[in-house]
Design a protein that fits this description.
2 helices, six-stranded antiparallel sheet, Thiol Ester Dehydrase, Chain A
Length: 126
């Protein structure tokens, strides 16, 4: 399921020394928030991880499959009405053949929501 332009939209992006920063805006009216949770909407962790994968595709990476997530820390919850705009800072640690290793931090101002490292595998067309 593609979340971009439905669950969230990219407001701006910039290249950094080690990767990319994306300022995204969540859609607090999205149906995911109706279920997670109706009276207190919270951005699901699996959506945060999927957004990172989609943002990597925005940088020119393609056909990525998450191979493993060695470390993930959900430090604070993202509430779409309170934290409508959030920065996803993605660092590309290494790119060797079909393997891409990244780290990401999701934050808004001083509040850090998520830190993770991820290993992705590039799938080739058959």
């Amino acid at each position: 399921m593609k979340l971009k332009d439905n669950f969230y939209r990219i407001k701006s992006s910039s290249k950094t020394e080690k990767g990319f920063d994306f300022l995204i805006e969540f859609n607090p009216e999205h149906f995911i928030y109706k279920a997670h949770f109706p009276d207190n909407p919270v951005t699901p962790g699996v959506c945060i991880i999927h957004i990172i994968k989609e943002l990597l595709i925005e940088t020119g990476e393609s056909n990525l499959l998450i191979k493993k997530i060695p470390q993930v820390k959900f430090l604070n919850i993202i509430q779409p009405f309170e934290n409508k705009e959030v920065t996803f800072s993605i660092s590309i640690l290494s790119r060797e053949e079909d393997i891409c290793k990244v780290s990401a931090t999701v934050f808004s101002g001083e509040i850090v929501f998520t830190k993770l490292s991820m290993v992705l595998h590039e799938l080739h067309e058959l």
